[in-house]
Write a structure and sequence with these properties.
Blueprint (H helix, E strand, L loop, with lengths): L1 E6 L5 H9 L2 E7 L6 E6 H8 L2 H5 L2 E5 L2 E12 L6 E8 L6 E10 L5 H4 L3 E5 L3 E6 L8 E4 L8 E3 L10 E3 L7 E7 L43
Parallel strand pairs: 1-4, 2-6, 7-10
Antiparallel strand pairs: 1-3, 2-3, 4-5, 5-6, 7-9, 8-13, 9-12, 11-13
């Protein structure tokens, strides 16, 4: 993806506030052999770009002062309750230096699996992105994961997924994490008929096959005492 940035001369809290009022977002570019550089970006263009997955997970082409720079989005500061981007950070990319990035997983095909179609299960997506290590040219926008082979009683692990060429996963000690678990949907328990506790409505008949309950004998009046 490509976006345009402009060099920012004014710095400080007050200058950044005035910049946002004009519809620009302050930012910074750092890394590589060059010094950190203060930049500004059109807020509306940045707002729409941030809604695209590729803007977060791929190497970006930033046009600055007529030159093109390869950068990665590293941080976004949002206003607590307004739809306003307060600040953005970008890192310069060296073609020969490996990147440590988070890449989203795109799941598909679970509706065609035996677990979902015939075995009464659902696919629970435990992990939606993984950390990878690769050169900038090998960084994928996403990793496609086919779930059509899911079966009842099994789960999909990282080792079951073929990563793109030149890409290795960073798992932080858990060498083979679960990506998708197959969960059996519990069957609804039948509602027990409470025949014994049923009370016929007034004027109604007792349920078939059961004799109506015998009426309690009427209370007798106490006998009169003899004088």
């Amino acid at each position: 993806m490509k976006f345009v940035a402009f060099e920012r001369a004014m710095q400080g809290t007050g200058a950044s506030r005035r910049l946002r009022i004009t519809g620009r977002t302050p930012g910074i570019v750092y890394g590589g052999d060059a010094e950190p550089q203060q930049i500004e970006i059109d807020h509306n263009a940045l707002w729409h770009a941030l809604k695209k997955e590729a803007f977060h997970a791929t190497v970006l082409n930033m046009e600055l002062n007529g030159a093109e720079n390869k950068v990665l989005l590293r941080d976004v500061q949002m206003h607590p309750f307004k739809q306003l981007v307060l600040h953005v950070d970008f890192q310069r990319v060296d073609a020969k230096t490996r990147l440590h990035m988070k890449v989203p997983l795109h799941y598909s095909g679970d509706e065609n699996s035996a677990a979902i179609k015939t075995e009464g299960c659902i696919a629970n997506h435990v992990i939606t992105e993984i950390e990878v290590l690769c050169l900038p040219k090998d960084l994928p926008e996403f990793i496609a994961v086919d779930l059509s082979g899911l079966k009842k009683g099994s789960s999909l692990h990282l080792a079951d997924v073929t990563l793109p060429k030149g890409v290795s996963a960073v798992t932080h000690g858990n060498k083979n994490p679960v990506l998708v678990s197959v969960v059996v949907i519990a069957a609804a328990a039948p509602v027990a008929a409470a025949d014994d506790a049923a009370v016929p409505a007034a004027g109604g008949k007792a349920p078939a096959g059961k004799a109506p309950a015998a009426k309690a004998p009427a209370a007798k009046a106490p006998a009169a005492k003899k004088k």
